[in-house]
Write a structure and sequence with these properties.
596 residues; mainly beta; 22-stranded antiparallel barrel; 5 helices
Length: 596
């Protein structure tokens, strides 16, 4: 693909630049119950911190994952429309999404409503690729995305923000930070409105979007105790098309968590977690039965974890989690209301000696309907020298049937969980000024649930596989800072056909530079052609974006984002007779004023 080759050339040119020091000592939480230093993990993790978010000014989470990390995504039109994520070629319901550690995937059809989380509320994102069910449970087949909205600044401040963009887009928010003694507080309220643009290529109807959001967190640290509370709430209205007719729906998403960490003894840590999530969609237009459809998931989770280290050689963790789900569903005459419960026990053992680290994790889940399900992970890390390391990882993950599959149209109470077995091997070189890794991965997913048109019922009748390479490179230097990702993969079904909406080649290059008190963030991403339902071809494309940030006056910052500079018509999804549209060339302006 010519666009991929062009991007590779740009990357090679950018890498021949002298470098200065940077330490890769970030702490990650997505691949372990206990936070770990980035260089100690045994599987692939991508990090996007607050500095990168401010530098590149993403306008959506989906766009950030696609443009900056070369992850396959799809969108059914403009802001607020249904979007999907395909981590390492897995299905859209094989990626577990968490907000502040709280699972937000609904138990009905569809994936997590990540498109309702505004990027102005995010402090960092962790993406763990590969099977992680032994750590996080169901849905963690392709990987886990954990998004944090918690305050990362200990400076007291009151900030007023205002942004404008295409299609009469406007965003207003007020953020406050306060530290007092051993406690810190953070709260943000946000209003976002857009008239949107036509979601389909054969339509001229703009589809609007309204978002009213709130985040808040409180942390308290004292001696051997850490206590934190966090919440995210988003509600509003999104307009869309169904069979060409304009309709709309109201939505509400919530994620609330309370976490306590207490050191019982010098070598024994106990962690308690209670969290709650809600996902609600209410249609504003009646169906053919003159009824208003809706879906509602409410989930409560209670978890306890014990962690015990043995000097610097070994440690083990074990815990128990109880998850309670209440699901209420009405769709085109199909009704159900059900309470389901999942219990799980889990444990992790880690052993380190000399330059070798071995980590094993196992989880035994028990669901009300399908019974027990075992998942596991094994990881090995070997440091050959001060700079070089190799990691080996393997695991088994699963996705339990959701309530729509168990009780909705074509439902089947005999469905089994979908299962995957995956492995990866990676080589990494880290020096103070740069980091480079090459990873080979392979995964196979069995018992995939699909509709059987012979018996007109859902069954475990399909399988898929994917294998490929990922190359990552990150550097810091006097001229530019940047990172690069290229992904070559072969996602296919049991008939060796390319999986829908997934590409074989993808690429992302991010560069940033400070010049004359301006900060420039440049991004180029490219994707190979894809296939959608009905064998509709989705052509490959290259996108160029640039963000410019500057402190224009005391306490006043301004940012300008130019998205899709080449005004490229590109498509990540299609209907039976048209394409779902994406944003054309657009200009986004944001002002932040510190009131104190």
């Amino acid at each position: 693909m010519k666009s991929i080759n062009l991007c590779l050339f740009l990357f090679l040119c950018s890498s021949f630049i002298l470098s200065e020091e940077k330490q890769y000592d970030e702490v990650v939480t997505v691949v372990s119950k206990i936070p770990k230093e980035y260089y100690k993990v045994t599987s692939t993790v991508d990090l996007i911190g607050i500095e990168e978010l401010e530098r590149y000014q993403p306008t959506s989470v989906i766009g950030l994952l696609s443009n900056n990390l070369a992850i396959d995504t799809s969108s059914n039109g403009g802001p607020g429309q249904v979007s999907s994520i395909f981590l390492r070629g897995s299905n859209s319901n094989h990626s577990l999404v968490k907000v502040n550690g709280v699972k937000i995937n609904p138990s009905t059809a569809g994936g997590a409503s990540i498109y309702n989380l505004d990027t102005s509320l995010i402090s960092n994102i962790e993406i763990g690729s590969g099977p992680l069910s032994s750590i996080h449970g169901s849905e963690a087949i392709g990987g886990v995305i954990n998004i944090s909205t918690k305050n990362v600044s200990d400076v007291d401040a009151l900030l007023l923000g205002y942004g404008v963009g295409p299609d009469d887009h406007s965003k207003k928010y007020l953020q406050g930070n306060l530290s007092y003694g051993n406690s810190s507080y953070n709260a943000t309220v946000l209003n976002r409105d857009s008239n949107g643009f036509p979601s389909l290529s054969n339509s001229e109807l703009n589809r609007g979007y309204k978002n009213r959001s709130f985040i808040g967190d409180w942390t308290h640290t004292k001696e051997k105790t850490d206590l934190s509370l966090s919440t995210w709430s988003s509600k509003g209205t999104v307009e869309y098309l169904i069979f060409g007719s304009p309709v709309s729906q109201d939505y509400k998403n919530e994620a609330t968590a309370a976490e306590l960490s207490y050191e019982l003894k010098e070598d024994l840590l106990v962690m308690l977690s209670i969290n709650s999530a809600k996902d609600l969609i209410e249609q504003n237009n009646p169906n053919f039965l003159s009824a208003l459809d809706f879906t509602k998931t409410k989930r409560n989770s209670y978890e306890i974890l014990f962690h015990k280290p043995y000097q610097n050689l070994a440690s083990y963790s074990f815990g128990y989690v109880l998850e309670e789900e209440d699901v209420n569903y009405s769709s085109y005459g199909t009704l159900f209301q059900k309470a389901l419960e999942t219990k799980a026990s889990f444990g992790t053992f880690e052993y380190t000696q000399n330059n070798n680290t071995l980590i094993t994790s196992v989880r035994n889940s028990k669901h009300d309907l399908y019974g027990k399900q075992m998942s596991w992970n094994v990881g090995f890390l070997r440091n050959f020298s001060k700079n070089w390391s190799v990691n080996l990882a393997a695991g088994k993950a699963f996705r339990s049937p959701n309530s729509s599959e168990l009780y909705g149209f074509g439902s089947n109470l005999n469905l089994k969980p979908e299962e995957s077995r995956s492995k990866e091997i990676g080589f990494t070189k880290r020096i103070p000024e740069s980091s480079m890794s090459v990873v080979y991965f392979n995964n196979e997913t069995l018992n995939l649930i699909n509709f059987d048109y012979v018996d007109y019922v859902l069954k475990n009748i399909e399988k898929s596989s994917n294998s490929g390479f990922e190359i990552r490179y990150e550097w810091v230097n006097k001229s530019f800072e940047g990172n690069f990702i290229v992904r070559l993969q072969d996602p296919k079904d049991q008939d060796n056909k390319l999986l829908l909406r997934r590409s074989k080649k993808s690429f992302s290059l991010n560069l940033s530079k400070e010049l004359f008190k301006y900060t420039f963030g440049f991004n180029v991403s490219a994707f190979d052609q894809k296939i959608d339902f009905g064998d509709i071809n989705l052509p490959g494309y290259v996108l160029l974006n640039v963000a410019i940030n500057k402190e224009v006056a005391q306490n006043l910052d301004m940012s300008l984002k130019i998205e899709n500079i080449g005004d490229k018509d590109y498509f990540t999804a299609a209907s039976s007779n048209s394409y779902y549209l994406n944003q054309d060339r657009s200009f986004w302006v944001k002002l932040n004023y510190k009131l104190r």
